[in-house]
Amino acid sequence: MSETLVDIGIPVAGRTAYIGRAIESVLAQTLDRWRLTISEDGAKNPAVHAVVEPYLADARITFVATGRQLGPPRIKTLLVRTGDAPFVALLDDDDLWQPEFLEEHVRFAQSNPEVGFVFCANNVIDGAGLEIGGSRVVLSEGAHGPDEMVLRLLEHNLVASPTILIRRTALAEVGGTFDERLFTCYDLDMWLRLAARFPVGYRASRDASYRQHANQSTVLDRSRRSDELLLMLDKVEAESMPPTGRLAVGRIIRRRRASTLLSVAMDELEAGNRRRAVQNLRNAIHVSPRIVGDPRSLVIVATTLVPGSARGLRAARTFTLRHGLRGGTFEPRPRQRPRRSR
In angstroms, rounded to a whole number, what is the distance separating the alpha carbons of residues 293 and 171? Predict the structure, then answer.
């Protein structure tokens, strides 16, 4: 076999519905110089093993179980540290790659040796594999420097999980470890660390599919998610500032921190903790005075002035959900398209 170019990791969390299709999308790659490690998070599940076993006849594919549950950050750290190929890619067990994904990503990375990672746009599919949306093409194709990419990633997470190919040497320079404290935004934390040190490559094509379905991993409660976002912003200020453009990054961090504190205030308000809601509102305004113009600030003030205003709380909840203000999160937001008829 020729020298391996890409070490691929697929983490599995006990579910079997889509893993076969994910593996098939790897086998269909036009670039065949890869190794695939499928790692089950926890004890070996006979149902998962039964799905994976037929593929193990391919010498490039390995299946292991961790023996105990590690969680997404730790199992993905194990996977990116497996092997010694010059490039690393992760594919969640419910996502898919188009056949040219690896070949085109590797070609781009080899032609642009300065980039730390390469990513592309993506389709969004449902549980049946039907296309229901896609990410917006928001960058020009090519390499983008740290000043630009750190700002863009802080404004909105552009990188969907199945779209990325990482250079192993770049991964090693930022520690090669996903932060276990960031259960919901560990991946964005890693992309920010890489983007602060290296240019980032972007391909304006949709060579990967992110699946939305009812059995996706459970999202943590909003309060813990907000705590993790605040911790990640602290890390960016301490570790992931680009070499120039620090003032611009600092402004966005303050705005994001204030927005997250405002979301915490809304959660406290819904829980009936008016005093805590007001304190978090004050903290948000202290971080970024301009947040006072955010509609959530006005809702908090109006609702706390009218004790027992259940109607006001319902209106606040409806307003923030409708306008995407609920949590100040960094999740990729797909562009929704009308469902196609079969």
Answer: 40
3-state SS, the chain, equals CCCCCEEEEEEECCCCCCHHHHHHHHHCCCCCCEEEEEEECCCCCHHHHHHHHHHHHCCCEEEEECCCCCCHHHHHHHHHCCCCCCEEEECCCCCEECCCHHHHHHHHHHHCCCCCEEEEEEEEECCCCCEEEECCCCCCCEEECHHHHHHHHHHCCCCCHHHEEEEHHHHHHCCCCCCCCCCCCHHHHHHHHHHHHCCEEEEEEEEEEEECCCCCCCCCCHHHHHHHHHHHHHHHHHHCCCCCCHHHHHHHHHHHHHHHHHHHHHHHHHCCCHHHHHHHHHHHHHHCHHHHHCHHHHHHHHHHCCCCCHHHHHHHHHHHHHCCCCCCCCCCCCEECCCCCC
Residues constituting the chain: 342
Closest CA to 21 of 93, 121, 120, 75: 93
Tokens of 197: 């040190």
Q: What residues contact 338, with CB distance under 8 A and at least 6 apart?
A: none
The sign of the CA dihedral 333, 338, 339, 342 is negative
Beta pairing class for 335-336 and 200-211: unpaired
Mind listing the pLDDT tens digit for each residue in 159-173?
998 999 999 999 999
Q: By the 8 A CB rule, do 205 and 159 touch?
A: no
Question: How far apart, in whole angstroms, are the C-alpha atoms of residue 143 and residue 121?
Answer: 14
The CA–CA distances, whole Å, from 113 to 84, 104, 166, 172, 198 equal 18, 14, 12, 15, 10
Q: Which residues touch 100 (CB under 8 Å, ≥6 apart)?
A: 29, 30, 207
Distance CA 226, CA 210 (A): 24
Write the pLDDT tens digit of every residue in 107-160.
999 999 999 999 999 999 998 889 899 888 889 999 999 999 999 999 888 999
Burial pattern 106-121, b for ≥16 Cβ within 10 A else e, equals bebbeeeeebbbbbbb
